[in-house]
Amino acid sequence: MEKLLRVNMTDLTWREEPFPAEWKFLGGRGLSAKILLKEVDPRCDPLGPENKVIFAPGVLSGTMAPTSGRMSVGAKSPLTGGIKEANSGGQAGQKLARLGYRALIVEGKAKDPTKRYLVAIDKNGVQIRECPELAGLRTYAASEKLSQMFSARAAFILCGPAGEKGFSGASVAFTDEGKRHPARHAARGGLGAAMGAKGLKAVVVDDEGTQARAPVDAAGFKQYVAKLTKEYKAGPQLFQFGTSATVPLANMMSTFPTRNRRAMQFEHADKLDGARIVQNFATRGGGMHHCMTGCIVKCSNIVHDANGQYVTSALEFETLALCGSNCCIGDLDQVARIDRMCDELGLDTIETGGAIAVAMDCGALPWGDGEAVLALLDKVDKGDELAETIARGVVATAKRFGIKDRIPAIQGQGIPAWEPRTLNATGITYATSAMGADHTAGLVIAPVADLARASQEAQLINALCDSSGFCQFQQPTIEDIRTLYNYFFGSNLSFEEAADLGWQCMVDEWEFNRRAGFKLEEADVPEWLRTEPVPSNGAVFAVPREEMQRVFQRMPISDELRTMKAVG
After folding, report:
1. Residue 57 pairs with which residues in a beta bridge?
2. Which pLDDT tens digit goes with each residue over 138-193?
3. What does the alpha-carbon distance between residue 288 and residue 299 come to, in Å, rounded to a whole number?
4. For residue range 483-535, what is the model confidence (pLDDT) as tens digits?
5. Mind spelling out the 3-state secondary structure of 236-304?
6. Is the per-residue pLDDT at 552 higher than 80?
7. How far is CA 69 from the centre of its chain?
8. Which of 96, 206, 283, 397 could form a disulfide with 355 if both were Cys (CB 3.0 to 4.6 A apart)?
9. Both ends of the chain: CA-CA distance in Å?
10. Are 184 and 77 members of one domain?
11. Domain boundary among 184, 205, 226
12. What's the total number of domains in the chain?
């Protein structure tokens, strides 16, 4: 029987509950949204005991479906003040699902704010214990210490120092397959601060003695999994060298932010091209690997320095853009070290890079000085005022410097690399999604005629994908997800009903935000995006506000949606 696991950090107790039968098609983001809407006061303090942090594997996590082990983290966001979900790869999603848990719900708050706790979960039950030896540790050191305490099969979920200190740019770290580097992050929305506020330093998940979740129609499930795997491997494999390979395309399209988004093409983009990372494998070591068992995408790079020493893994396009070009840093090795520093501290590289660029624009740091950035970030957990401001994100940094009119954030969250002036449909997503400025909420890159429809459909399929456990890089269609659900549960879910699951997730999130005080009728981008053209292409965000409102009304299913792939 599948269950919900509740951990109360106030009285340090836990209990299991049967998973509601009517929620069987809910997992990941959709399940997180449902629980938060049902159980959390949307006007609560995000760092208070009334907020809850949800760790929810996808519907298909723990099965043999390829690349389906993503784990969603959900809570009221300390960054935006609205609902937030961020998901991550790594091993924990597969393992928690194989232990029979559809979600871990963390409630309450430690009575003593100076104490740190870990929650250890295995087939024998749950332990909650104080862990003073982990307090304040950066994530790599914490992972190494936990590796000495628990079996080689255990996966770790970690709160870094930024989360412990309640900084609203904090991420939640997950360990990957193999060496258990804490290099996978549920990064956006400050969810690491929500975790840290509970006094929860780590979750340990050990699935020793468990098996993959068994489908009702095992033969049909296996056959469709083989079909998906074959089709993916025969396809273009867009991410075979990681998202870093996107750099030349983004630069050409004028969506590679430079100098705090005052330009969208970088003169040294070639120095940040992911092809250089791949070329370095021959002389430095490293290579491509998968972050979770069962992944067929294998998009993650392992980056070594000139001496052949490991630096970081999954040096991604967004990090190269926000922590690289946006700060005028054209040194690949420096950006890799900045990525590692953010992973160590538990910081979102998008939010952090955006905040650093704001500070540079105000003269607090020299443009292009990667060493100065590293020195500043090294002070995040040492009490430095500017470093702490950066760790609180773009809006906090702009406020510190008195910036009011040109803040590169939407709905309180720093804008990702994908530029809303160049990609207007993506800009609609940033303004209308409950996730805020989050490219994984509904990225639209191709030119389209009906921008609002394109945004709504991208948001819908990505909400469903994030609920399924699939990685967006697997690029499943609604039909793929529906078919696997039916084989797994022995159900007869229609295409329309599967699409409804994605839409209902969006509706639940919007309703939470409405109750939190958000006014959907006022959804918009900052005015400067409408008036300041991108220098290289003259683009501005030009979608009328009333046109954007169409996203909130369900549109009929189009032929395009029936074949659309999730993408982020």
Report:
1. 71
2. 999 999 999 999 999 999 999 999 999 999 999 999 999 888 999 999 999 999 99
3. 7
4. 999 999 999 999 999 999 999 999 999 999 999 999 999 999 999 999 999 99
5. CCCCCCCHHHHHHHHHHCCCCCECCCCECCCCCHHHHCHHHHHHHHHHHCCEEECCCCCCCCCCEEEEE
6. yes
7. 14
8. 397
9. 33
10. yes
11. 205
12. 3
Q: Are 186 and 277 part of one and the same domain? A: no
- 461 CB contacts (<8 Å, ≥6 apart)? 477, 478, 502, 561, 564, 565, 566
**Of the residues 378, 393, 414, the one at which a domain ends:** 414
Burial 177-207 (b: 16+ CB within 10 A, else e): beebbbbbbbbbbbbbbbbbbbbbbbbbbbb
- AA letter at 467: S
Q: Answer yes or no: do 386 and 489 share one domain.
A: no
Does 123 fall in a domain?
yes
- Residue 321 DSSP class: I
Summarize pLDDT for 215-237 with one digit per residue, the tens.
999 999 999 999 999 988 887 76
Least confident window among 237-241, 254-258, 309-313, 467-471: 237-241
Q: Which of 308, 299, 306, 369 is nearest to 338 (CA)?
A: 369
β-pairing verdict for 184-186 and 172-174: antiparallel
H/E element holding 486? helix 478-489
The CATH number covering residue 35 comes to 3.60.9.10
CATH of the domain at 257: 1.10.569.10
Asked if 341 and 462 sit in the same domain, the reply is no
* Residue closest to 140 by CA, chosen among 300, 313, 278, 301: 313
Establish if 329 belongs to a structural domain: yes
Residues 456, 397 share a domain: no
- Reduce the DSSP state of residue 217 to 3 states and report it: coil
- Residue 429, beta-bridge partner list: none
Which of 79-93, 96-110, 210-224, 285-299 has the lowest average pLDDT?
Answer: 285-299
CB burial class (10 A; 0-12, 13-18, 19+) of residue 149? middle
211: in domain:
no
234 in a structural domain: no
Q: Are 244 and 335 found together in one domain? A: yes
DSSP conformation letters of 36-89: HHHHS-TTS-TTSTT--EEEEE-TTTTSSSTT---EEEEEE-TTTSSEEEEEE-
Write the burial class of residue 528 (CB in 10 Å: 0-12 exposed, 13-18 middle, 19+ buried): middle
Structure tokens at 36: 């938060």
Integer Cα distance of 154 and 557 in angstroms: 43
The per-type count for the chain, helices as H runs and strands as E runs, is 21, 17
Taking alpha carbons only, the member of 379, 449, 456, 398 closest to residue 261 is 398
Positive or negative torsion for Cα 551, 555, 558, 563 = positive
Q: Which pTM value belongs to this model?
A: 0.97
Give the per-residue pLDDT at 238.
64
The verdict on 446 and 370 lying in the same domain is no
301/323 same-domain check: yes
Range of the domain at 290: 239-414
What's the pLDDT score for residue 87? 96
* 478, two tokens: 């609604």
